[in-house]
């Protein structure tokens, strides 16, 4: 069961004040565990933002949210065959997954050292998790994200071998397909052409937030640290 972090001293803007045409909701605050847990429970996630030549911490809630329905995953025949060659593990190499996702060699990289430190802390408290694809005793690919109740908010993924990150995503879907599956929510932030090919759809912000409220009442999947069935928000700040 996740360890409750110290409550955040920050107050995020109320949903009614969010610009209906802008994914960016707020600037500032910090990456402390309590702030991160409070943000995800409100449908927000952080990313660096450059404005007028200055770097800021931005908090996003996409107007059109990328969501992967657990019953809508598209698995090609070749991917299904490839998946047989990998072993799925959870939280056995979180730091390595995080480092690979944040590699400075990635052209679209945004995971700074501050983010690496912050999510490492969140992992040690039981809120952030990695799903890993292993082959022949080596980490071939994986993903990491934040789990609160029935929500898994995916942050980033990487691969060192063909299909490894996709296989890790399929592994995560299987972990979430338990008797609470219809109430779970696999959030991938934005729909990209690559993610759309795997079944990711767009959900209007209001619809996503409405579902999130219900999802947070569902216990974590067993593989991510099954709790006692209480609302995931009870273990974190409000």
Automatic annotation (TrEMBL):
One Pfam family here: Leu_Phe_trans
EC code: 2.3.2.6
Record field: catalytic activity: L-phenylalanyl-tRNA(Phe) + an N-terminal L-alpha-aminoacyl-[protein] = an N-terminal L-phenylalanyl-L-alpha-aminoacyl-[protein] + tRNA(Phe); N-terminal L-arginyl-[protein] + L-leucyl-tRNA(Leu) = N-terminal L-leucyl-L-arginyl-[protein] + tRNA(Leu) + H(+); N-terminal L-lysyl-[protein] + L-leucyl-tRNA(Leu) = N-terminal L-leucyl-L-lysyl-[protein] + tRNA(Leu) + H(+)
UniProt cross-references to InterPro entries, sorted A to Z: Acyl_CoA_acyltransferase, Leu/Phe-tRNA_Trfase, Leu/Phe-tRNA_Trfase_C, Leu/Phe-tRNA_Trfase_N
Source lineage: Bacteria, Bacillati, Actinomycetota, Actinomycetes, Propionibacteriales
Signal peptide span: none
Compartments it resides in: Cytoplasm
Name of the gene this protein is made from: aat
Example of a GO MF term: leucyl-tRNA--protein transferase activity
Protein name: Leucyl/phenylalanyl-tRNA--protein transferase
NCBIfam families (alphabetical): aat
Keywords attached to this entry: Acyltransferase, Cytoplasm, Transferase
Coiled coil stretches, renumbered: none
Family: Belongs to the L/F-transferase family.
Origin superkingdom: Bacteria
Species assigned in the record: Nocardioides renjunii
Functional description taken from the UniProt entry: Functions in the N-end rule pathway of protein degradation where it conjugates Leu, Phe and, less efficiently, Met from aminoacyl-tRNAs to the N-termini of proteins containing an N-terminal arginine or lysine.
